[in-house]
Amino acid sequence: MGQASPVALAPGSTVLTLDGALPVEHLYAGDRLVTRHGARALVAIDRVTLPAGTPIVEMTRNALGGRPDRDVWLPAAQRVLIRDWRAKALYGQAQACVPAGQLVDGEFIRLAELEAEVTGFALRFGRPEVLYADGLELASADVLTVPA
């Protein structure tokens, strides 16, 4: 696999907001999204260039026990919150937030590469959040900072 994989949502991802499910391309800073911690305002939306060769994970509809809502792809580094047998079997926890690339099973969740450059969308809240996109629970692009 070629390029490093950034954290971003693919174009066409449907994100759950207080105004309903909207394509990620239609979001703006200040929009309020539904997160695991309630409604949170977006601080920023960064457009991220995903060059050809970027590692991606293709997930078929229902690959994660009823999720996602449709066939989707994510950059391999995009973190996904899992709360099913996978979290227990793979991490010994009831839930885990893991890069999509670690969920690859070769059948329903496959590793691939982008064939052409694509613009992705990194959603930031000013602190890490878990948002809902295409029925998946995805980590925001915010980085957890721990004081030294």
Automatic annotation (TrEMBL):
InterPro entries: Hedgehog/Intein_dom (IPR028992)
Protein name per Swiss-Prot or TrEMBL: Hedgehog/Intein (Hint) domain-containing protein
Top-level taxonomic group: Bacteria
The species this protein was found in: Roseicyclus persicicus
Boundaries of every Hedgehog/Intein (Hint) domain copy: 8-138
Pfam family membership, one: Hint_2
